């Protein structure tokens, strides 16, 4: 049993063969997948996949890179979809100072609006953070995001920041980088923080784990993330798979 908490099967990279990709995931023991929307077309596609497959769930939200294009109508659409039975979270949302395609002030405003909406509809949030840790933590604190909690997706920060996020009712999710030989920080953090706050993900089609680094990522590879965490923590693969699945179900309210 493996729970891929962050997959973009809704991305154009899967247009040709999404059915086969999903079959391979099932064959490798993936029991649940959250498909994460990040703009208009990918939100619609996430909902469609969640309606099509019993073990696929959807998250709906607006990516910070594209924050400048989010309208009030988009926010209304996200609010409407929040009551869909297969929507388990709002996101991904957050701040991205690496690409810097939307002004920081716009990103912050769009982020705050989505946190407020999550509190209104009582759903956890999925956080995207790139080079913006201090502002993310500050906004989560100011907006009292601990009321809904959520997940720090593909976490790359320090142990101190991980603890701060856990204190705010967040889970820490690791993806492909935890399998990379040269990725010291995610390995250290994964080793250190308690198993009951850990999640695993692929963030496919991006961040492909070793030994497939450089190729397109897919949910069946989430087992390599679980293996790497098991090795770091000196636990069995089965225990990591089971506990991270239990954590994800608890967070997303899946029975
Ligand atoms: Zn993502």
UniProtKB/TrEMBL annotation:
Keywords: Hydrolase, Metal-binding
E.C. number: 3.1.21.-
Binding of a divalent metal cation 2, residues: 128, 153
Pfam families: TatD_DNase (PF01026)
Ligand binding (a divalent metal cation 1): 6, 8, 92, 203
Keyword Membrane in annotation: no
PROSITE patterns: TATD_1, TATD_3
One cellular component (GO) term of this entry: cytosol
Molecular functions per Gene Ontology: DNA nuclease activity; hydrolase activity, acting on ester bonds; metal ion binding
Cited InterPro entries: DNase_TatD-rel_CS (IPR018228), Metal_Hydrolase (IPR032466), TatD-like (IPR001130), TatD/YcfH-like (IPR015991)
Keyword Metal-binding set for record: yes
Identification of the protein by name: TatD DNase family protein
């Amino acid at each position: 049993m493996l729970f891929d908490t962050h997959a973009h099967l809704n991305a154009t990279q899967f247009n040709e063969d999404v059915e086969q990709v999903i079959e391979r995931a099932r064959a490798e023991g993936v029991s649940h997948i959250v498909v994460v929307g990040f703009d208009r077309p990918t939100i619609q596609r996430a909902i469609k996949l969640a309606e099509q497959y019993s073990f696929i769930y959807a998250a709906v939200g607006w990516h910070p890179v594209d924050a400048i294009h989010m309208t009030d109508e988009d926010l209304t659409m996200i609010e409407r979809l929040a009551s869909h039975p297969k929507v388990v979270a709002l996101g991904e949302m957050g701040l991205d100072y690496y690409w810097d395609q939307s002004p920081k002030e716009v990103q912050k405003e769009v982020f705050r609006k989505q946190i407020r909406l999550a509190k209104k509809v009582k759903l956890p949030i999925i956080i995207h953070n790139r080079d913006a840790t201090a502002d993310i933590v500050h906004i989560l604190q100011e907006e009292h995001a601990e009321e809904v909690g959520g997940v720090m997706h593909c976490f790359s920060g320090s142990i101190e920041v991980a603890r701060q996020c856990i204190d705010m009712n967040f889970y820490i999710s690791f993806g492909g980088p935890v399998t990379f030989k040269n990725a010291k920080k995610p390995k250290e953090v994964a080793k250190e923080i308690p198993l009951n706050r850990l999640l695993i993900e692929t963030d496919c089609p991006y961040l492909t784990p070793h030994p497939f680094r450089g190729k397109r990522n897919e949910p069946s590879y989430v087992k390599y993330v679980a293996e790497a965490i098991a090795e770091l923590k000196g636990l069995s693969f089965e225990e990591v798979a089971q506990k991270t699945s239990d954590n994800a179900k608890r967070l997303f309210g899946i029975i």
